[in-house]
Amino acid sequence: MPVGIELPEPAEVLKRPVSWIQEFREFIARGNVIDLAVGVIIGAAFNDIVKALVDLVLMPPIGLLLSGLDFSRLQWVLKPDNPATKVNELVAVQYGAFLNTLIKFVIVAWAVFMLVKMINVIRRREAEKGAPTKPAAPPQEVLLAEIRDLLKAQGDASKVP
């Protein structure tokens, strides 16, 4: 064994996983991690809502206005499929699916923008309220402060030559 290297005791090694498990529990129990998990779950659900909105509500009327065009099937065929073979040989750039995804992104971005705007309005209202004003000092404290200031001024005047 090389000089200067100490191996931990076997009992110490067995304790380490428990401490790692404890650290992991503390990490998971933190509020930030739980908030992040809730945000991811709600974000995934919101994604499904936006997907349904775009695919089932927005795109059909747009396709109808464009003579029954289905955006999700728009593609630029680079290599057509050979009907004689069972293997799908179609190679195409599916720009219609990309347009649907782009519309979904714009909707999600708009929703996030509106959420941030709402939070900023709430913060501005809270800032306008301002910090609570300090109540006026009782009259005894005001009188004592005046006496202190007078005594301090007299002490400074007596030091002048």
What tags apply to this protein structure?
mainly alpha, two-stranded antiparallel ribbon, 4 helices, about 5% strand, elongated
How would you sum up this structure, described in words?
The protein has 161 residues and is mainly α. Helix content is 69%, strand content 4%. It has four helices and two strands. The protein has helices spanning 10-29, 31-65, 95-129, 139-159, and strands spanning 76-79, 91-93. A two-stranded antiparallel sheet has the order 1-2. The longest helix is centred in the N-terminal third of the chain and has 35 residues, at 31-65. The chain is elongated, with a radius of gyration of 35 Å. The model has no long low-confidence stretch (mean pLDDT 80).
Task: Write the SSE topology.
Elements: H1 10-29, H2 31-65, E1 76-79, E2 91-93, H3 95-129, H4 139-159
Helix pairs in contact: 2-3
What would a concise description of this structure say?
The protein contains 4 helices and 2 strands.
Task: State the strand order across the main sheet.
Answer: 1-2
Helix content: 55-70%
Uncertain runs = none
Beginning-to-end CA distance, first to last residue: 83 Å
Strand tally: 2
**What's the number of helices?**
4
Which class best fits the helix and strand makeup? mainly alpha
Mean pLDDT: 80
Q: Tell me the strand percentage band.
A: under 5%
Shape: elongated
Largest sheet data: 2 strands, antiparallel
Order of helices and strands: HHEEHH
Supply Rg.
35 Å
